[in-house]
Amino acid sequence: MARFLSLRAEEDASRLGEIFAAHGQEVVLLPLQEIVALPAGLPDGPFAAVMATSAHAAPWLGAQPSLQGLPALAVGPRTALALRDAGWRDVRVGGGDARTLLPIAREIVNEDHRPILYAAGRVRHPETEAGFAEIGIALRTAEVYDTRLRAPDRGEIDGLLRVGPIDGVLVLSVAQAVCLPAFVSRIGTVRLLCLSPRIRDALPPELRTDVETAPAPTLAALAELAASGQEARRMP
Description:
Blueprint: E1 2-6, H1 13-21, E2 25-29, E3 33-37, E4 49-52, H2 58-62, E5 72-74, H3 77-85, E6 91-93, H4 102-111, E7 116-121, H5 126-134, E8 139-149, H6 154-163, E9 168-171, H7 174-179, E10 191-194, H8 197-201, E11 212-213, H9 219-234
Parallel strand pairs: 1-2, 1-9, 4-5, 4-7, 5-6, 7-8, 9-10, 10-11
Antiparallel strand pairs: 3-8
């Protein structure tokens, strides 16, 4: 069984492990990030809908009972599940990228011209808010969680390698791509699998040469890429 290193925060890893296990792969953890809730206040409303581009926004939204009658926009299935667990019934799901929420949001705003409440991370990509502004949809943003980086020590890496070799590293965010060069050489020669082209492009040029990118920005697509690559390596 191939072993793939996940750099995600520990609380994000269970679903990732399940998806890779279904493809005959093992996921081991070396978190570069930890998620911290922020004491955000509720912006002035009213709102046409709420929006989350990460499951980490769901606990804060779930603590706002006045919002739960609104439709919720979720960037993908995992975020949608978290919103439903937080109490939402009307959840409209994008295709794993914030841009896929634009037509869904336009349909809502065409009927209700109020802004959309965006429950966001403190560290986020400006393209989301810029994309909504370009099509004339107003967002009210609440920063409800933060992603803080941590540096793995040599003992953590050595402990993983004592159990067995690492076949690949899963790079699931721009922050991970930026931090990876500081320690990847200690792991040895491994496959680098990126969730999206934007994440791939955040790697330094020397690591982009042989990087593999998922055909769609979903964990399932990344797991299929990992499995197909291992099969190809076993072929004579």
